[in-house]
Give the backbone structure.
Amino acid sequence: MRTRDLAPLCLALATSLGSIACSSDPAPADAAPDAGALRDAPGGGTADSAADVGAPVSCLSGTACDIEPNSGCSGTNVCAYAFESDARTNECIAPGTGALGTACDANTDCASGFSCLFGFCTELCCPDTGSCTASTTCGTVDVMGTDFTDTLHVCLCDVGGSSCPPDHFCNPIGTGTRGTCLAQGACSRLMQDCPSGQGCYGSIRECAPPGTAAIGEACTNHPDCVPGAWCRGSGGSGQCASYCEVGGTDVCPAGFECTSFGDDEPNVGGCYPM
């Protein structure tokens, strides 16, 4: 039975699963995830359970192991979130080093206590444990599999507020007022001031080895593109587009306009079709 990591998994509302649309940046930013159903978690000790997953022992139980409290794994392995086409499975992994809000491709990239969700190391929770970092609170999002919808408890922040730890910002889910905390990077997407051989990508401003896809060519993730470009679109059908300076002149090709990503680098946007 094959378990899928959630690196490219996203919140899906109108996504046909089998291939899940996903991205790492805020709306209307660098190919933001589709808005999912987001709800506050109930208070008290009775956790929600997703009807199509069965009746989990706790709000983060899976067929392989339980995330909170961490159980079902041997040795120093820990339980992280995973699912197959029709059920939440979870998986036992050797934890990595990725902290809250850092980019990831698989659960093994993230430190203990985090799962690779939406392309970032994300903190999951149960509403009766009060385990969320800083001033984030435990809420629920709907994650859609091929044959089921899983109601997953995630630590959520308030967009524009101060609920995230220092050096983090609240990345909105869709166009909502709540989101997940991402770690703030240090590079500039306009200046492309990363070390030699790397490009600056995404709203987390991550230095990463650059791809070779030129403007207008197909991409799946931001680092597939050459430095100075980002992957506009999702679900494996993206296209490399230019970063641009909001308010600048002649910054986008004809028929495109520079639209701010709305993140903490307010002068940076992307070229979107008019």
